[in-house]
Amino acid sequence: xxxxxxxxxxxxxxxxxxxxxxxxxxxxxxxxxxxxxxxxxxxxxxxxxxxxxxx
Length: 55
What we know:
Elements: E1 2-6, E2 10-14, H1 20-31, H2 48-54
Antiparallel strand pairs: 1-2
Helix pairs in contact: 1-2
């Protein structure tokens, strides 16, 4: 279980297997597009997975 405080007042509890970076990678595979065709934008810790994927 991964627990993230977001926006200073909200708590997200998700599985370690649920990650925006993993989902973004799977989505690009499903849509048959390259990572170079995708932009990741986020504003808090729960977005780091997808931002790292695009870095």
